TrEMBL record:
Keyword Nuclease annotated: no
UniProt keyword annotations, A-Z: Repeat, Signal
SMART domains per the UniProt record, alphabetical: WSC
Record-given protein name: WSC domain-containing protein
Annotated WSC domain residues: 33-125, 142-244
Annotated signal sequence range: 1-22
Length: 259
């Protein structure tokens, strides 16, 4: 009798497990050319993927999010908190792996769409991408890192830019400085991970980098949107009273004394 009851118990337990498993959302491992790269930790103040597609969407699915990212030309996409969608070209911060991707998508209860500060992330067509932490590029060609400078509200330290604008999501230190050089400038700066500025500076002239106000080496910590290993000023997703820019000068024009 006991053996019979035990057998019935195990059968019921197995049936219950199957029912629970059938109703539980699961990770979409592949979709078109997209592949899962796991559950990534995220932060509201330091987003792993910079471009917000949708927030509090009642119809969110993995497929709809990744279709939007692909249409925008991004190589990474991710869903979070059940109803949010983000895209990017780099995992901007070194948040690491999360175990909190447990929420069903608002538009498809059978799919996982991340969790609180947790992102079900995907990579497009095995395209290479970078992730943090970021550090300063100290030397590039004839360019030298000049530090992290304060740029007060309403004042642009270097008011010009490359002749050909650089798409924000493609910003790197190298792209910015190449653009400044091509435009004939010998000073360049990056801000907010995505903005590039240029100008012509002369020793003992105006503007004079010797008198730029330093913000401190740690004030510039925003990763470049296209290369998360490089710092592009401050401060992506953070609110600051002043702007911080990562500056560079070159010795190849008439400013050898600056280097």
């Amino acid at each position: 009798m006991f053996a019979y009851q035990l057998a019935v118990f195990f059968q019921l337990a197995l049936l219950l497990l199957c029912l629970v498993s059938a109703d539980s959302p699961t990770t979409v491992l592949e979709y078109k050319e997209w592949k899962s790269i796991g559950c990534q930790r995220d932060s509201t103040s330091e987003r792993a993927l910079h471009h917000l597609v949708a927030l509090s969407s009642p119809n969110m699915t993995v497929e709809s999010c990744l279709d939007s990212c692909e249409a925008g030309g991004y190589v990474l996409g991710g869903v979070e908190f059940g109803d949010e969608c983000y895209c990017g070209n780099a995992l901007l911060y070194d948040h690491g792996i999360s175990g909190d991707c447990f929420q069903a998508c608002s538009g498809n209860a059978s799919e996982l769409c991340g969790g609180p500060d947790a992102l079900n992330a995907y990579q497009f067509a095995d395209t290479p991408f970078t992730t943090g932490p970021a550090s300063n590029v100290l030397v590039y060609k004839q360019w030298r890192w000049w530090g992290c400078q304060v740029e007060a509200d309403g004042f642009i330290l270097l008011p010009h830019g490359p002749l050909v604008p650089i798409p924000l999501e493609e910003m790197t230190v190298e792209r910015c400085l190449d653009g400044c050089e091509a435009a004939g400038y010998n000073a360049g700066a990056l801000e907010n991970g995505q903005n590039c500025y240029c100008d012509l500076v002369v020793p003992n002239g105006t503007p004079n980098p010797d008198f730029w106000e330093s913000a401190g080496i740690f004030a510039c910590a925003a990763p470049c949107l296209a290369n998360a290993t490089e710092i592009c000023g401050g401060a992506i997703d953070k609110v600051l009273n002043d702007h911080q820019i990562t500056t560079y000068v070159t010795c190849d024009f008439d400013s050898e004394a600056l280097c």
